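Tokens in:
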């Protein structure tokens, strides 16, 4: 056998191999079309989900920011209220001290001067009558149960 025949046989085997390889590649590509469509559909679905999650995250971020601002405003209001309450406590303490000092002075003055004793007794009786005025008015007007308690009853005018 001549070497040219061997070359033709080798060339034939090479061509048959190339044809088989091309057929294999074509079948491989054809077989990959369906899984590639599924993968593309999955990626599109995943992209939609990611977009939905991003939208939800932005909404939650916006809500969080609004809540943060609202909490800041309310905490400022509460701190003002707390500061006012502290000031009220200090004012009440100062007022109690002033009232105590005035009553101590009145007691001291009334103990040493009989004229002041009469004046203190008169002021005490007046304060007592002012304190018991609503009760006294109810005993004067027995129908006061059915009337408005915001108004005082002075009896019938003639």
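Residues out:
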């Amino acid at each position: 056998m001549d070497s040219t025949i061997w070359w033709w046989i080798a060339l034939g085997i090479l061509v048959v191999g190339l044809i088989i390889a091309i057929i294999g590649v074509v079948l491989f590509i054809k077989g990959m079309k369906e899984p590639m469509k599924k993968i593309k559909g999955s990626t599109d679905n995943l992209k939609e989900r990611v977009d939905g999650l991003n939208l939800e995250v932005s909404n939650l971020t916006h809500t969080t920011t609004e809540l943060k601002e609202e909490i800041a405003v309310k905490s400022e209001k509460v701190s003002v209220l707390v500061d006012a309450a502290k000031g009220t406590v200090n004012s009440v303490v100062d007022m109690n001290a002033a009232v105590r000092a005035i009553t101590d002075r009145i007691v001291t003055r009334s103990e040493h001067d009989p004229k002041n004793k009469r004046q203190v007794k008169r002021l005490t009786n007046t304060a007592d009558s002012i304190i018991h005025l609503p009760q006294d008015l109810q005993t004067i007007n027995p129908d006061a149960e059915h009337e408005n308690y915001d108004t005082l009853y002075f009896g019938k005018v003639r």
